Structure formats: C-alpha cells, structure tokens
Amino acid sequence: MDAEKRLSARRKHTLKSCMLVVANNLLEAEAGVKADEREKFLADKCPPIELPYSKDELLELCQKLHEQIDISEEERYSIEFKLNMVLNEVRDLNIKIVDLRGKFKRPRLKKVRMSADAMLKALLGSKHTVNMDLRANLKQVKKEVKEEDKQLRDVGDWRKNIEDKSDRKKMFDS
User: Fold this and answer.
1) Does the entry feature the keyword Cell inner membrane, yes or no (predicted)?
2) The domain containing residue 70 runs over which residues?
3) pLDDT (tens digit, 9 = 90+) per residue, 157-174?
4) Model pTM score
5) Is 57 in the same domain as 76?
C-alpha cells in the first residue's frame, strides 16, 4: 500500500514544475492588475496638465494645484493619525496581555563591586563628595596587658618551670 501512494521522482519533478509555471502566471497577472490600478488612480487624481499662455490662467492653475495639495496633505495627516492611534492601541493591548499572564522575565543583574564612596557618589551625584572611610570610624581598643598573662608568656625554659612546680609539690606533701 505504501508503494501505491509513493510518487516517482519524475512524477514529483513534473508536478513541481507545473505548480511553478501556474504560480508564475498568477504572479504576472497580479502585477499587471496592480499596474492597471495604479495608472487608473493616477489618471483620476492627476489629470494631464495643459499649460495656459496667459498670466491669469496660470495663477488660476496654481491656486487649483495648491488646493489639491492641501486636500492630499489633510488626507495623509488623517491616515497617519489613525495609524498612530491603532499602533498605540496594539501596544496597550500587548501590555495588558503580558499583565494578565503575570509572567515577567526579570533580567539577570550583574554583580557590581562598588565602594561606599562610589555608591554615595552615584546616588547623590558628583556635586556631593562624601568620603566615608568605614575603618576610620571604628573604635580603637587599646589592649591592656595583664601581669599574669605577661608572666605566663615569659615562662622561659620549660625545665625551670618543672623544677618550680616540683618545689610546690613538696610543700603540699609536707
């Protein structure tokens, strides 16, 4: 059954070439129709100009052309305004769609190492230069060295220390 449904390569090639010929004819016919429509539109909107020889007739022709230009500019402006309104409406509807979905892709933020001075400068602007040296504001604690600790550190030779302890042991024994 698969063999019956399959087309031979030659048959496929002929079908493709026939389809291309038909599509090409349709495109040519469509291009001809568009050209005819363009010529008809231009004939309606822009009749052939017959230049008069007198000054009054030339002034009248200029005024007529000026009025036609004004009308075409008004049409262009109204079409442009409608287009902008539609584009704004589409943009608003897209925003509403995104809001209704509730899925916002948050951009990945880069980690920035910044000192406190640079951060304050960025927040407050370049006018406010605040030097914030955190280490300078820390309390300085003076270490008090106790005599006992000093004696423990200055033990010296460990053999002497043992001999001193042995004397003390003798005192408790007696």
Assistant:
1) no
2) 53-104
3) 556 666 666 666 666 665
4) 0.34
5) yes
